[in-house]
Amino acid sequence: MRLAWWLPGLAFVAAGVTLFYCLFLFQGYRGLFRDSDAGWHIRNGEAILATHHLPVTDPYSFTRAGQPWYAWEWAADVAVGAVHRLAGLSGVALFYATAIAAGVWLWFQLHWVLHGSFLLAGAMAPLLLSTCNLHWLARPHVLSWLFLLLAVLWAERRQGSFGWRQAAAVAAFTALWANVHASFFLAPLIAIVYALRDRRFLWAAAVAAVAPLANPYGWQLYRHVFLYLTDSRLLARIGEFQSFDFHAAGAGQIIAALILGMTGGGLALGQRRLEHFALAVLFTGMALRSARALPLAALVLLPIANAAIVCWLGPCGFVDYSRRLRAIDARFSGVALSPLVILVCFALLRAPRIAAATGFPPDQFPVAAYSHLPSGGRLFAPDKFGGYLIYRSAGTRLVFFDGRSDLYGAAFLEAYARMAQVRPGWHEYWQSFHFTAALVPDDWALIPALEQFGWKAVYRDGTATLLQEEGTKR
Predict the structure, then answer these.
(1) Distance (Å, rounded) from C-alpha 169 to C-alpha 173?
(2) How far apart are alpha carbons 239 and 294 in whole angstroms?
(3) What integer pLDDT is reported at residue 350 of this predicted model?
(4) Whole-number pLDDT of residue 159
(5) What is the DSSP string of 13-69?
(6) Residue 328 CB neighbour total at 10 angstroms
(7) Long-range pairs, 417-422, Cβ under 8 A, ≥24
(8) To 10 degrees, the CA torsion angle through 219, 222, 225, 226?
(9) Distances from the Cα of 256 to the Cαs of 37, 128, 298, in angstroms?
């Protein structure tokens, strides 16, 4: 094995630092689980492994039981379910943190393919991390970041004709993407953008548009994703699809990342790199419209901005010095150290103090309250708690609501908001579900409202309150 494989370059060092930072300084062993959707993803993957069948109807709620459900991220669920079987939540945290670190490594490779500055790439790395850690979660969208970077890397490197081997590779790649995450539609979009440079990319776009049909739902997945992403009434009820609050604390680096991305797009237009300009317009627009797209913009546009700035500067001392540093760095890789780094991180995760703290944050989820829940009946709990309840009960406790917004639909979310916010008509809607218990965050106005109708708090711990109607058996 070559010595260079054992000597780390900048990309490997940055990826290793990201892995350690995500797991331990960011406290990813708990922070990655701050969205309870991680819970149902894990249990769905384990169920698929146990039954060798994909679910076709909803198995986790009593409000949508038996209705068609598209488990469109089933491959990611199976992977994380297998990891959970082997290593528990520590393994899940390591799995997603490693994916995040791999994304950083690929991000640097995009800088190098575009002939970006070594120094600028290093300077932009903190902007990338600050923008992406908004969505550092144990959910399949993290894996989609890898697919996105690989798609852009392939487009930048591809030269020559588009033969059957390239078509087969694109087909396999996009089909896998479609079974991991619904963002697979970005693959043909990227190919169409690169057709501005070379019309042969239109063949890649055609293959990338058709190959994802190799999924358990066929063309129905296309229809479902399209209807979901164009349902403005539904998306208006989902926080991560709203615009980012640029007045929030720590938003400065995110603003800087977007400004750099837009600047790079403008420079690329002047340099006749129309594909880079089009990518800047596409991802900037997505990022301004939805906070969920901010990491995508940083992953793609910062390397483009780096290359555009280098081209704009032209030959100068800064560019020449950076090029020499990159020439030295290119001799090293460090990839052979990857298993060792991962094993060390896993060993640290298994340390008693960290292992005891690993999992869903008890100050955000009903970790302590769960053991006080009645064994039967219908429990009201918000979507924030739903995924955790599915995880904690291994899917045996049917929930009222969880994070699968595409399953529940806009009308349900609107009625739920009326009930949760105690707006006129809430009680009639409440009674229609025949709840026997309610588990809600301690600061909800629903608690005193229910108490006025004869419900009594039987447990409270500072995170959640459990209520039951007077006379109900506990």
Answers:
(1) 6
(2) 14
(3) 97
(4) 81
(5) HHHHHHHHIIIIIS-HHHHTTSSTHHHHHHHHHHHHHHHSS--SB--SBSSSTTSB-
(6) 11
(7) 417/237, 419/446, 420/382, 420/444, 420/446, 421/445, 422/446, 422/449
(8) -130
(9) 30, 10, 10
Q: Ramachandran region of residue 399, left (φ > 0), alpha (ψ -120 to 50) or beta?
A: beta
Paired strand residues for 68: 57
Asked whether the whole model's pTM tops 0.85, one would answer yes
pLDDT, tens digit (0-9, with 9 covering 90-100), for 240-272: 999 999 999 889 999 999 999 999 999 999 999
In angstroms, the CA 194 to CA 327 distance is 28
> Cα(281)–Cα(225) distance, rounded to whole angstroms?
22
Q: Where are the alpha helices (DSSP H) in 198-350?
A: 201-210, 219-229, 232-235, 252-270, 274-289, 294-313, 317-329, 338-349
CA 277 – CA 266 distance, rounded (Å) = 7
How far apart are alpha carbons 104 and 127 in whole angstroms? 12
Q: How far is CA 307 from the centre of its chain?
A: 27
Measured CA to CA in angstroms, residue 110 lies from 66, 88, 304 at distances of 45, 33, 8
- Domain ranges, ordered by start, for the chain: 3-31+70-337, 369-469
| The residue count for the chain | 474
> Within 10 A of 323 (CB to CB), how many other CB atoms are there?
15
The predicted pLDDT at position 2 comes to 75
* Tokens, residue 57: 């109807």
Q: Which residues of 253-270 are buried (b: 16+ CB within 10 A; e: fewer)?
A: ebeebbebbbbbbebbbe
Strand partners, 466: 439, 459
pLDDT computed for residue 473 by the predictor: 54
Residue 379 β-bridge partners: 437
d(CA 186, CA 151): 9
Quote the pLDDT of residue 472: 57
**Given this model, what pLDDT does residue 249 score?**
87
**Which has the closest alpha carbon to 273: 320, 312, 315, 316?**
312
Structural element, H or E, at residue 459: strand 455-460
- Short-list 290, 303, 288, CA closest to 258: 288
Pick from 34, 232, 258: which is nearest to 134 by CA?
34
DSSP for 87-108, written as a single string: HHHHHHHHHHHHHHHHHHHHHH
Q: Please, are residues 158 and 202 in contact by the beta-carbon 8 Å criterion?
A: no
Which amino acid belongs to residue 420? A
Q: pLDDT under 50 in the chain at which residues?
A: none
- d(CA 248, CA 31) in angstroms, rounded, equals 19
